[in-house]
Amino acid sequence: MKIPCVGFCLESGKGLKMKEKLKRKWFPGIFDFINFKPRNPRLLKYVFYPPGMRLGFKMLAGMFKAANLPLINRVHPWVSNEKNRLFIIPVQETLELGESVTVPYQLVETFIERSSYRVIIDFCACRKAGECKKYSSDLGCIIMGEDARRAPTTWAHPASKEEAREHVQKGIKAGLPVFAGKPRVDNYIFGVPDMGRMFSVCFCCECCCLGNTINRYLPPEKLRIQYNRLPGLEILVNQEKCTGCGTCVETCPLGLIRMVDKKPLIPDDCQGCGRCAKYCPNKAIHLKLDNPGYLESAIKNLESVIKI
């Protein structure tokens, strides 16, 4: 029996001590509907049918919004600075690297190499729910670390280090930014207890990703800590090439870019995903990374909240 509530759930375990109860799976994730498959396949069909999934994501976004309410946002794990930390690896085609600067993919490669266990989700729930026309829904998330052993395997499969690397390369070649780190809401989505040992890698598109919606609810001071651009990454605008068309404003997933005197103003809160540069029709925006120490800094930051 599961007792639902906003944000988390405890399984009942008659005769068990609280410590033992907490060791059981205590999050009813979206993917946990697989538990009902033998009993009610019709329900399962509607849950994983795009309209049903969209409804589920709307409910999840509403829960995330509630988590940001005063007082609740002080204790809720979904918005805690100590339980959320991500770095965004920008769209590769938009990035210029300085001399002796390692390619950003190495950040993910480092954690793949260190991971004891890896699982690839067989499809991207966001793109499937949104019936994405731009990108394949086959590019699901990767979750790594000891906590990933508890992920449901009906909609996912264990992966070798080599398969995980190949999967990441598929996302990069598809032109998607890579979100790597610890988004606490993933524990809820995948039904995995948070023991601080799960590293997520997501390939988020600008049209369907749930993160585009829920991150807008985060106040700027939390957004800056929890969703990081790579240390030293610059987003540069060529004023001569820019025609003020506003494409960058339309494609920014968080709505951070605004036009001032018909020119884009990119704030410090920008995550550096590179979508604005990718879609700029005049190639007036480009990203530059010229910090040889960025990789060590990013790894140290992530290690402060994740042990895989």
Shape: globular
Question: What's the oligomerization state?
Answer: single chain
The sequence of SSEs as H and E is EEHHHHEEHEHEEHEHEHHEEHEEHEH
Provide the residue-averaged pLDDT: 82
Query: Largest sheet, described in full?
Result: 7 strands, mixed
Distance between the termini: 30 Å
Rg of Cα set: 20 Å
Classify the helix fraction into a percent range.
Answer: 25-40%
The unreliable regions are 1-39
Number of domains: 1
Question: Which class do the helix and strand fractions yield?
Answer: alpha+beta
Write the SSE topology.
Elements (H helix, E strand, L loop, with lengths): L1 E2 L6 E2 L6 H6 L17 H7 L2 H18 L4 H4 L9 E5 L5 E3 L7 H10 L3 E4 L3 H5 L12 E3 L11 E3 L2 H13 L4 E5 L2 H5 L9 E5 L6 H5 L5 H7 E3 L3 E5 L9 H5 L6 E3 L2 E3 L9 H5 L5 E5 L4 H10 L5
Parallel strand pairs: 3-10, 4-14
Antiparallel strand pairs: 1-2, 3-8, 5-6, 5-7, 6-9, 8-9, 11-14, 12-13
Helix pairs in contact: 5-7
In short:
With 308 residues, the protein is α+β, with helices and mostly antiparallel strands. It contains 13 helices and 14 strands.
Question: What would you say this structure looks like, in words?
Answer:
Helix content is 32%, strand content 17%. By secondary structure, the chain is an alpha+beta fold. Strands 7-5-6-9-8-3-10 form a seven-stranded mixed sheet. It has a three-stranded mixed sheet with strand order 4-14-11. The longest helix is centred in the N-terminal third of the chain and has 18 residues, at 50-67. The radius of gyration is 20 Å and the shape is globular. The two termini are 30 Å apart.
